[in-house]
User: Fold these one by one.
Assistant:
Number 1:
Amino acid sequence: MSNEIEAIRDPGLPAHVHRRADTDPKAAAKAERQVAILFLLSALGTLTLIGAYFFIPQDAFIFFPVLGDTNAHQLFLGLGMAASLFFIGMGAIHWAKTLMPDEEVIIQRHEFRSEDEDRADLIATAKAGAAAAGLGRRSLIKRSLGLSLGLVGISPLILLRDLGPLPGDELKKTSWKAGTRLVTDPGDRPIRADDLEVGAVAQTLPQIGEGVHRKLSDIGKDAVLLIRLRPEEFNLDAERLSWTHEGIIAFSKICSHMGCAVALYEQQTKHLLCPCHQSTFDVTRAAKVIFGPSARPLPQLAITVDSEGYLIAKQPFSEPVGPSFWERSS
Amino acid sequence: MTASERIAGTVANYVDERTGAAKWMKKNLNKVFPDHWSFLLGEIALYSFVILLLSGTFLTFWFDPSQREVIYDGSYAPLKGLEMSAAYASTLDISFEIRGGLLMRQIHHWAALIFMAAIVVHLMRVYFTGAFRKPREFNWIIGVGLLTLGIVEGFLGYSLPDDLLSGTGIRIAEAIIQALPVVGSYLAFFAFGGAFPGEAFIPRIYTVHVLLLPGAFLALITVHLMLVWYQKHTQYPGPGRTNNNVVGYPLFPVYMAKAGGFFFIVFGVTAFLGAVASINPIWLYGPYTPGQISAGSQPDWYMGWLDGLVRMAPPLETYIFGRTISWNILIPGLIVPGILFTGMALYPFIESWMTGDKREHHLLDRPRNAPNRTALGVMSLTFMLVALINGGNDIIAITFDLSINQIMWFSRIGIIVLPPLAFVITKRLCLSLQRADRDLVLHGRETGRLVMMPHGEFVEVHEPISPEKAWLLTQHEQNPPLALEENDLHGVRRPGVLKNKLRARLSKAHAVSIPKATADDLKEIEHH
């Protein structure tokens, strides 16, 4: 900045103004009493907590405006604890503000940069150290050290290999096979076409043997949504139409975007909506994406009925279900 | 001499005879801390962390981090007899069987929200006042690291109960991992010990949540505080406050009482929230199963912006050579956040490169006096806010009876249009405020008193402002932009001209200001 312009000057720290408690012993005594009351309120809070813990039953409910019906045990436990902590803080701060010195103190700062001489010394030392190690000259050491340091980082990675199996084709296949019956979830009951009225939705899984435990990782790929429309409402090509049965169409329930369960069905518009990121799929057009971030339709499961009239899968899913991954081919 | 004085003296003597630290301790007990409410924000973050450690330890005594399936047989009737993971069942037990367990769970969750909020507001304070400048650049980077870890730690924490809501969150995290090119499905299978959800993930993130990350937090927070201590706190400008001093209260006893008391207040308020405000009632969501979901699935607020970005992403995927690249996941889930956080971490260096300022700064800026920086900050916040709003688009649509598609389109357009708009408006506002400051110094304060002049004209009486106020409004530096010549002294073009040009332009934009009032200006006015 130019020196000719005179800046407005710093008037310096304003004069200290005494508080009442500094000059009036009565005010000081009053402040002391206030601090004591705050600390006593904290003690009262702890007593409330003890009382609530031992004497209020865990299933006692109490009505409070705004809060509504509230568990009294939990409420008074919490309020007691809150008071016991809060008022210690209030007391300490009131004490500091009214009775401890409130005159501002000034200390000086010093630039962090050391004296030039010291800096030169340090730099010389650092250089001398680097020279003494001689890495620059001894390239054999430098290179072999670089190699070993580079390699040593691999061992923890190797050791973590057994965290899990390789994906193989796990991501590409589900439990659905040609002829697998669709069963209700929950309930595991086989479904006839007549069980589903027009406009109805059912959540289904592939049938498994009696007493076999269904793994969550299977549900994560196998969950299928059945929706029944009037057949004339479909707008499908011949192949996809042949995958439906009497207006019943089946889609993977696992979102093709990030794998959430696509559970919201709008009967009026015949749209499926994923509650996670609002990808919207048109049921009449083979779950084509009509809105939101998903780039692919929900995979459709080809269905038909078996000799007993129960809904079965005609064939496995023709593409991997769920979110995308690198090895997916479309 | 009172008893307490005697004890204090004895303790000091005892410690010194065993450590020889008298000089060091005296200096540090007399260490001065400047007072300002905005300096409490970092303290709130620190105290919330302590609360998280205490309440979290309590929860570990009963929480069973296992995805082994059990049949629930506790006192919460609606879920009786249901199959669920031991993690979910033990969280129910903490909520319903352990006295004070629900309170501790709610304190823990509230403390996590407050922790993250305090970090974010503290970061805003540091940014807008320029406290990150030399010599505090590294503390800024540590702070950005703490923020990032906090987001991860919070996410892992609310994922542990294995309820339907948090399981859905893990599902989304898995999809992000799975979307990584080349290694995605491998990493996902390693992380989950097989196909999602498997039985390995909860126990693993439990170790990360209670051991690894808290350890990292402790280390980083220690360095963060030691640097604050060693470099001394910055202070706001004002009469008597310079770049070379610290004006405030000594650590002992005033600051100890105030800061110590403030810890109890933060803890008390958190406990109060835990007592009266229900948070994450996992028993309402039910146990996690991949085939189900609840409408209105929302992450905690500090993840909301990320979810909002994912929601608004266009449906883009590339299929090439039989491989899939999911831009709709990679861009909002990794690339944009990566750019944002890297840019944030590097900002101190970027600003110093733009201004060419390599000096130490201990006196804070008033945000209006750094219009470019303030505008950039508001621009980033606007971006985050639009993303966050879109993260709650379903809730907003239901609450205000709006179309979710319209909100999504508002966000998609808004995230591109609104941040630059916010930049321009903020910069203009800052300059207007500078102009108002200048007027205030030169013409004084409007008193609201109208006086009729002898010739009938009405004028409003202005009163000069106090010298303290005048100093506050004019103490800041106004530096000219960097002069970067295209050619050097011999008329030879410098290397890296393009970089130089960019730097010169940025520097010029950064130096825009309304000339502050000077004593000369004042004298000139008096002459009239």
Note: Chain B has two domains: 32-346, 443-527.
Number 2:
Amino acid sequence: MAHDSGSKTFDLKAMLRDERFWKIAFQVITLIVVLLLLSFFLGNLNRNLIQQGRAFGFSFLRNPAGFSIGESLIQYRPNDPYWRALMVGLGNTLTLVVGGIVLTTLLGVVAGVASFSKNWLLQKLSRLYVGLVQNIPLLLQLFFWYFAIFGALPNPANQIGVLGLAFLNNRGVYIPWASSALLAILGIAATVGAAIAALFLWRWRTKIRIETGVGGQAQSIALAVVALAWLAIITVGMDWTVPEGVEGGGVTGGLRLSREYVASLTALVFYTSAFVAEIVRAGIQSVSKGQWEAARTLGLNAGMVMRLVVFPQALRVIIPPMNSQYMNLTKNSSLAFAIAFPEIYSIATTTYNQTGRPVEVFVVMMATYLTLCLLITVVMNQFNRSVQFKER
Amino acid sequence: MRKWGLLAAALGLTLAACGGGTTTTADGEAAPAGGGRLDVVKERGQLVCGVDGGIPGFSFVDESGTYTGLDVDICKAVAAAVLGDAEAVEYRRLDSTERFTALSGGEVDMLSRNTTWTISRDTSVGLEFAPTTFFDGQGMLVRADSGIADLEDFAGKAICVETGTTTELNLTDQMRQLGVDFEPVVFQDADAAYAAYDEGRCEGMTSDKSQLVARRSTLPNPDEHTLLEVTMSKEPLGPVTTNNDSGWYDVVKWVTYGLIQAEEFGITSENIATFEATDNPDIARFLGQEGTLGTDMGLPNDFMVQVITQVGNYGEVYERNVGADSEFALERGQNALWTEGGLMYSPPFR
């Protein structure tokens, strides 16, 4: 660094005064410190494991698990290996997370928009809900829903029927469902497919109408066809089975959502939605007053102002923090363990207890949650890009 | 320039963290290596003992924060032997999922937490089991009016169970063998599990029989619940230490045996003074009047005198906490001395 000065002697003072030297030196020092810390912790772990006569490894995942699991998406028997038990846990976590994200988005947006409502009761209710739920720890809310609300339901002998379509008792909630898992998957796929097709058709129709001022009938017809096809698949194709109460208590047929699942889902959704409502409120408030006034001047009614003008602009502010709420929901789902929902954290805890391999199991668990959160981030970043200002 | 200041601050912090890290190793290494846990306990002047804390009769905290129970008395006995003071114990309440990591991580010196001795815990989990202090079996608690008389009656019904326990595995094995399809509802916390059972989430609650009896006494209406006749497994419960510290393991093991041996000799906390000038060489050795049994282990030679005076012998501990003198009035049964048809047997103190 000091060479170009021309002098042959190495000038230490000049080097220490040189900003470029320090820029590099700091990076080198930081790197060394990080590496030292890392090697210290890994070395410590290794020494301790050796002291206890154990070697780090994942081969134990192939041993039979030996415990039973209350509910599972995939086939599972107690003599299946640990990794399969963990997959069961992952499946249960995913049902909680996916269900949670969908319902949280709906409830959160409704509660957020309601805080701008001209309806006094609705507006106050929204504020009360956010203020109350945001400030109570999630674990407490989980116990509340599990023991105080769903625990207060009658036992199977005195179960509550809802219009003969669904049943509620202190074991869970029973709802109509497709007669086989395959049909259920088909139904969900058809719903998602129809929604995507409808979205594209709608955009296409809007584009044509913006460009030409007329037309779009063909797209409207296509939209109707998609809707009808979806309706047909859902109503007829699914071969619905309705739960039926059994004499003396209990239910056959339909889909059983265990009390553990329903309570976990409700608690997570109510809790996270309160935060989402605040994000939505902040997003809407970020849209300048001029936009509201301009929209009203064009003759749009209050609903249309929100839907067509304000909300699309608010989305730009709403999407990034939503990502972190979805990730929070994913990570918080591990608390469902406390009320006996067999999600992945619960299964992992049992696994490390039976095998005495906490380090390996925690590595698996961290990798799982990390992967889930990164997936959410990738999807949300894509979505975020699509709602940002288009520079033209 | 301001940026540099920040960088320097960050660097300082990192270094401080690093420094903190090194001191922890110094601590952490001192514990298991060399002299082992025994020296650590002596230096600290206090025994850190992992207990459950929620099972009346075994380990239970009352309103004043005092711990009592059979498991607690084992902690006290070890403290009396090592430190000469049965009260020099710090209790840590651990649930069934935390206990082994807390022990192998060195957070507690020993567990006395109704832990079942099994081969996999002894080998792959890396624990050492001191002699069994309570021979138990797994049972099933049901409502008296439920009409359930047998495990077969659980087809399609729910059973509450605590996670990370041998009972969780035994239950699965038994039901698999019987071909009964049941719904396990697995809780991390025993309190939550019993609460869920009590309000009717599960038809049955399974655990060690002694625990079920003890826990039943804490339910709102104890008379409405009954234990099924069936015994689903062998549950030998005892204190636990970690692998690869045989000095400490020996101490816990022989203090426990000492309790049993004292009962066999007929030495109690009340009559121990009469053995001061005994002419029985076995008892003289046992109480440290002759030989070096205590000092060889790194303890005071009269360690058993301390244990018996402050805690009592095994029979006293049993009767006081779960036996005739307690509300549970459990028979000695398998937990009687071998001379009286039970399984309690101590190798000779020689």
Note: Chain B has two domains: 37-134+236-340, 137-235.
